[in-house]
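User: Predict TetR family transcriptional regulator's structure from this.
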Amino acid sequence: MEVKKDNTEDKIIDAATDVFVQKGMDGARMQEIADRAGINKALLHYYFRSKEKLFDAIFTKLIGIAFPRIGQIIFSELPFSEKLEQAVGTYLDLLIKYPFLPAFIVKEVNRDATPFFSFIERSGFSVDPIKRMLQEAMDRGEIRPMKPEHLMVNIIALCVFPFAVRPIINHVAFKGDDKALKQFLAERKDEVKSFVLKAIQPE
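Assistant:
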């Protein structure tokens, strides 16, 4: 008889992601997470002894989806324009799958940035390889000269902002039409890539 894989941990992380996004770290309750996961609280504590450990597990999962792929793109031999297109596409795929993630991160960082910064340090993530890639592209004349930090922030803002203020965009631009908003966000992949590539062309 085939043994069915235990997916309790995945259920917990999925349930916790919903609760954390909706209520933040302070408002999240382990009992509610257990209820949404369909388990008892004792079993939840068996897998994750605290909200902080569960919070870290969620970030590890979400970042683990996109960061390895983005790293592969950055260190590949692809032309810069293709690297940019693929990296933006990968990042936006993550945001489309988890549209409430940017607002959640902004809220939690403004509440207390220490846990988020600690997680980044533990993960070993660094922007230095990205900055080097951008500077090398400028040195080769592939893109116009600018501070790499400005280009990184511009790209991130173009990707993240519509997701961070989804309710406002939905109300103002689409009169509460969720279907139209979803289509708009899906179109961002091509729009952002096209906009950035035109903006960085050598003068």
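The radius of gyration is 19 Å.
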